[in-house]
């Protein structure tokens, strides 16, 4: 029975109180005084119930002992108070409390499971619910990812034309079904009609070009308008990539509705529209958000997760990986896609040479510079949007950006096509079957074939044209991505970053190739690059460049390389990738250590304590804690001499989220910590349910009620909402240790003592403010609690 | 100048004291009392120097302020006391203190680096010293691994014969140089002479067989004898795999000499001897030990690592990975080996089918059962060795085990050969070039060829014989491995575990193959296994079995699979491997959650707090802390009324490693914590250097000296060795939270308070004892501090 009561309590750390207090009075009498004399000093309250019983090693076994005369008061308090132990919106969770609550639940299930077959089944169900959530999430988000893929492809092609044989086919599928298609011209078939053909009836000529151009812009603007309107009206949280917010949520912050069903629905729909509108954005980041929404929604089916914020976050992590796996699996069984398990499968014929590390490292430098530049420019633009009137017209902004993108993208084939397709083309090496413009080399045996199977050839006119177009595409992508990331539509950054790197890499690769062809007797090439031999692989350069740019923007190193080489399936190119990504990270870090996501977290003022960033200052806890010198004294509660009225006055006068409870104003010795929300709920609850609670009722946090005059109203016991094991540090503790404790234990607040006396309090927000101050930033940018 | 002093201090946490105390007296006077009145209670010592100055936010800036009359006393104490902040053998390190020391050092270098070009160079050197250590370690341990490989191969072949053309060639190299060797009989050549040929002059017949048998046993015993003698005489720490000890050291324990040069030298030599003696052991575990020794030795070249136990451990982690990489690279450029980057490179021709998951999962069950059985049997045997007279004759034991191993291993070709070779053979699929006995299938087109290229054939007599021999080898390996792991020679467990799994897997694989051949019309096989088609790959079964057994013994899941499939280069078989390894872990965990290394850690009583194991009991800190009910009171020091004599008496009467310092016996309010070792060193140092320190000198931990009678001797200030930010928890804190704090922050001890008063202390050892007690084990098995 006791364990049941324990389970229902809101507070886990307090559920031990009843066990501890069960060490009966006799024990107290001979237990105290073993170490020290408790009753020699004035300030020691004699009613301080469960004072030291250091020998209470066996307290649990003689637990049943009579709680004497206070039984009638305890009865009420053994009941759980609804709402105690939950959180407000935009507040930080207490990881220790949440984990503790879960262990309590687990113990209860474990102790019950031997009772009956039904309880055993329930315990099995509980143990497997984690797998269930992950499986469901994986399936759901994998299916959504597939749907988004297909829908975005179809709508993207809608900008160019329609399939007459079947409206729901995209360009590629339309021509698959046609039997008039030859392999060389696989994307041309009579069933697929461009808008000019449909409307004007002619496929060639300036008129039809302008018609196609116009329709392209029309559709792009329509999609963009629809996307931003849906986001604005139905789910404002659906905009952006969502990764900064998810990082903050996973670190223990509450944003209600951010992972809800509305966000999921609207994000899914608008992501398709945003991708199809041709804006310079990707869908990988928003897909993470979609997966986390699925995880959150499914977790509500299982009390294990829905009632525990820490466990829910565990599930979100797992969901994210499950979704990735599911998406890959879905892609592999996708009847329309290629059958590889990887996103961009590449096979290169030639190894790389040591000398090539120089261009690879240069690509790394480019990636780092681009990353640093992008982060600064994008943050500056987003700050402008936040602070000026301009930010009040998100719809107009999206339409404007979409219009500029469409106008400049259409004439250049490399910007008109789907960005994933572009990356794939850039990664691919030129082989005999490649009909791309990038592979139009002049054949060495002049005549017979248009291009040679043997690489290391002089570039043909197609390659030169492609180089120009790629340069323009590079400039275009760089500018547009800066203005696109942060718009009020779902937008990811992986694909645009990779595209920029891939374009730069391919350009460098082709340049190297031509250099090696025309100067193969240079001492640099002489050793390993014979005439007519295949020695430079431009596709590999594109891959290295993509990794470097992705690294520069997001600042993840090893994990990034792993992702990239999983995407490409190339295990042999780990050294070039590593070299480029490490360089890009070092170069980027020289301009600022934060990645784009961390920068956006800071821009938005989320309370995120970065695990990577070292705290290197020599400040002490006393310098960071509140109250500061000029502040009013710390709001504290005494354990047994407040009335309900006084307590409410203290709560109303301050805006703190919690209050330390002390023995007495004179001694300042700390007893515990009570949260504002819990106190409010408990008083409210007592008023409703418990008779005789009045404004002048005494409130006490001790085990036993204080001795009161005969005519005083019934007292209110609040021990069950008191956290009796608050974290404390001394005022001399260096802040680096305090920061470490907050990070590793996931604290929400910590009390500061000096020689056993309460001195102040440090919250997560205080730490973030202090860190901002030390970095010469505005401490008021930290907004939430 | 101040920063220099800070750097030289032994204690990092106290280096802040001088900053804090720099907030001059004026500040103290108006700073205190902002929050609370400090002078109202009796027990508040007025000399409690740096009481609350909560507004000292700018303390650092006005730091230069006069330290008034105490200057002559401070002068001495600003000097570093040599030895303070180091550790005794078999003690636990304080991670917080070590990390803090390193940040202090880092800050000093950072502040200095702008002073001159030389300082800037030094800072660069410091920043890169981590990479240097890792590179050096990687190279050295890679080279050692290569040497051990070559030497062990040569000595292993010495048991069978010698190469007449060149003594230093092993069997394989000897026959490579011979031009009389055909491909089919590549291991037979005239230059290689077996002992029978050399001594008796004949290669065939029972006489020569007995001669070879005798020489095999003779060499095996010689090697084993030499190995155990070297270990016993020169470096007792060189025995075993070393992984349990390294895990403990990495978790923050001091074992002097365990990673020293003697251990390295002897371990390298004896590892070769032990492997060559034919005992059932591998060299992977000891190689980890060798790599860590290299890392430790090289770290002494860099003060960043040699002077900081936490940083040293970081380096050891990195060294371990660097060594693995280096070993692989060395292997890839090894002129004698194959050119693959992986240990066992396998390519299979056929995919696996869903139905095959059943035998794979059965192999997982076998792996789990074997792991659980092995751990129990081996631990029981090792405990017997520790507790009985038998353990006193390690040399005899090794010789006995080596003799039994040699006698039973020689007749069976699968036990006679090198275990790595055996695993390779078992992993390899039967192809047209395979001459192994395992591939002697009867050809389907009877006659012409001895075996067919097309698998799924009836087994020939060779296969039947091999099956019998494999069964015997399995039983032999299982028994011998139990008795071998724990002998006083270097011994790893990876290769024997994998061998057992590979044998079992291959047996199951061949059985499945024959089943599919003879019953290909069963409904199970009908769908996917046509007549004459290649549907079962016995080599894959061997691989899956090996992974399952390795998982069962060591209980690592995902990381294990990654290792295994890196070893084999097979990315497509991740699902079978995962299924088997997960099953093996579940089955194994049902019999006990500890892997073999954790079991050995517990057997040896090392203070290792496992991060995986959940603490699930409901005990409170007050039940675990010392002093217990029956104990004498906690030994504490008061901050300003002890004499040197009293202090020494307290130290001599107790055996504690540290003492809490309190304001006064009456108030029991905690000031800080002082380590026994530091107090002893400081008193010793003061006696030598500081004049006027006598037995009746007053010792004080406060900022200012207490007021003393005029004729009293000069007092001794010990503030610099006082840890002023000890970790505290309340007596009501659940042990699960305490355990979490110890794990995550790497604490050595934690003080327990109740309402601001010191109540007791919890050390890492107390926690381990408590956990042992809760698991119904002998708490006295935890031996070290």
Automatic annotation (TrEMBL), chains A, B:
Localisation: Cell membrane; Early endosome membrane; Late endosome membrane; Lysosome membrane
Keyword set, alphabetical order: Antiport, ATP-binding, CBS domain, Cell membrane, Chloride, Endosome, Glycoprotein, Ion transport, Lysosome, Membrane, Nucleotide-binding, Repeat, Transmembrane, Transmembrane helix, Transport
Topology class, membrane: Multi-pass membrane protein
InterPro entries per UniProt: CBS_dom, CBS_dom_sf, Cl-channel_core, ClC, ClC3
Superkingdom as given in the UniProt entry: Eukaryota
Domain CBS: 625-691, 722-780
GO CC annotation: early endosome membrane; Golgi apparatus; late endosome membrane; lysosomal membrane; plasma membrane; synaptic vesicle
UniProt GO MF annotations: ATP binding; chloride:proton antiporter activity; voltage-gated chloride channel activity
One Pfam short name: Voltage_CLC
Transmembrane portions of the chain: 128-148, 216-238, 259-281, 287-303, 315-333, 353-375, 395-414, 466-487, 499-520, 540-565
CDD domains assigned: CBS_pair_voltage-gated_CLC_euk_bac, ClC_3_like
Role: Strongly outwardly rectifying, electrogenic H(+)/Cl(-)exchanger which mediates the exchange of chloride ions against protons. The CLC channel family contains both chloride channels and proton-coupled anion transporters that exchange chloride or another anion for protons. The presence of conserved gating glutamate residues is typical for family members that function as antiporters.
Family per similarity comment: Belongs to the chloride channel (TC 2.A.49) family. ClC-3/CLCN3 subfamily.
Protein name: Chloride channel protein
